[in-house]
Amino acid sequence: MNALIPDSAQEFPKTRPVRADPPSSFRLEVDDAGIAWLTFDLPGTSVNIFNDMTFRDLNRQLDNIEHETSIKALVIRSAKDKVFIAGADLKGLRALPPEKMEELLVLGQRTFSRLAGLPMLKVAMIHGACVGGGYELALACDLRVASDDDLTRIGLPETQLGLIPGWGGSTRLPRLIGLPRALDMILSGKLVKARQALKLGRVDEVVPREHLEHRTMALVRPRLLEPKCGPSWLKRMKTRGWQLALPLIAFKTRRDLMAKTRGLYAAPLKALDVIIHGFGRSIDHSLALERQALGTLLHMPETGRLIDLFFKKEEAGKKALPKGHALPVTDVAVIGAGVMGAGIAHWLAGKGIRVTLTDISPEAVAKGMERIQKLVAEGLKRRAVTKKEARDTMDHISPAHTPVPLHRCQLVIEAATEDLDLKKRIFAGLASRCSPDTILATNTSALSVTALATTVPHPERVIGLHFFNPVHRMPLVEIITLPESSDDTVATAFGLVQRIGKTPVLVKDSPGFVVNRVLIPYLMGAVRLFEHGQDPKAMDDAMLDFGMPMGPMRLLDEIGLDVAAHVARTLLVSSDVLTAMVAAGWLGKKSGKGFYIHNGRRTRVNTAALDLRKQGGEAMTRQHLQDHLAGMLSMEACRCLKESVAASAGDIDMAMVLGTGYAPFRGGPVAHSLTLGNVPTNS
Fold first, then answer.
1. In 42, 300, 369, 504, which residue has its Cα 20 to 30 A from 378's Cα atom?
2. pTM of the predicted protein model
């Protein structure tokens, strides 16, 4: 008999409610075997979150559990379909005055400590997102059983919001899984699927969702007759053996953090201090360190900007358009099997959409399929997908090197080379192969979508869908709308982008849209500084210190100098030095030479490029370079806002953070302009 499946209905004893509480976000029932089932079900919302009210509700139920002598074990579960517990109510937390904020931090810590101290087995039965405070509750339990559903994600993402786990996560996790693994989880803030969480020790069991309750009972029942020995059931790591290694671990981790963040982000450094100085000490001492660090971080403006960006991204991923009807999309054709076309096809297929991938020759299609197979293999290696998901992805893609009928496709995405005439010919040819209501989209990064719409009989169905490279890593999609675009076309595109897990930003058809419109003047401004004698590495270092993931000269090499020059010309910007470098075959990293010489992982300044400069000039200080280059980003972003290229400053800032890696803690180029005292129009 399968141990996960009950052999009779007796496996599910009848439950009875415990005490008639006033309306509560927690429901407590006890079955005949003495197992208490505590269900978190916050009314009026699709997610469970912790705030003052839910903590007080939980404490009332803990009172009931302590007074109910028949209870021998406790299982905590969620009534929500997609979320176990989403963590803290960040909006409410930020609105609290300092003294109330401190009270909530203390209340959360005491509640979870009280849960951990209950003299019975405690199990967190996890399905859906278990993050932040939700996982801290799970850490206060003795066992964590998770469903293997794709919705289940485990982690402590607080450092990505400028915070640290402050309800016991920074204290209990290192004692559960050891310092190295705990540091990696907390400092990175990354969420992982249930299977990977099991491998890393973050949960104890992973089972199919339909067996979750059966397996939980199978784990609990053998322990019902064991003596009530309280939290000793919690699997703890011995801390004594780590004490000698603490200084070395702290030194290496801090060094790596500084190399990665240049000390610009306070939260990971605070988290490191709390974990190192609290490890091996009493729980109460470590919890006090958590509260102190959180109290400091919550009042930092950088934290506020990170949280604001988080909410903007969440809103963009969930909000519905005010008008228009989003049509279901099951079949998509991607025209062009190059890097972008293959990347788009791979991502759509991975989300369950049937994709026809076409190009002009068998060789081009074969290369595209080879790229997709490589992406799938990389996903398997990183455990981002299962073997079944990998097979399903490949099964959803149909390659074609000859024109095929596309009438069953609700959407066609053109992803050919950035050549307007070529794209026009493709669009003109699509009209006869598609149904009259098929949406025609272009993945252009800067060309006129309006010009493409003139080539088809129904311009109202034309739209831009600008994915960013690499597609499987970049979360942003710019949706370029035209005055002619129908409401249904826009709504369908917006809904599809949300459905495939990307963040949509609506922009008007304008040269470069938002991201390239802001980015290219900044990059070309750096080229002009180079022409006038500024050192490329000095400029890159200045912008790394500002918080950019890569300096402008290195970014130009990564993009490709030929690509950058082409996009710049589209925006009516040019550079003699850039033109000369492209003519010499210095295309950046892909050719091994650009502003830098690229030799594997090693790079050095291309001194031959220095000879192309027209004139020398006095070297600018790092601060002057940083102010000048960052100012160019903010200036162009504010122009976009003034011209209503996007609907709001928040949309522009979010697009720049997600599309270019603009320093998130600065909030975006418009937000940064505000910190300097500039008030952009339409803000």
1. 504
2. 0.89
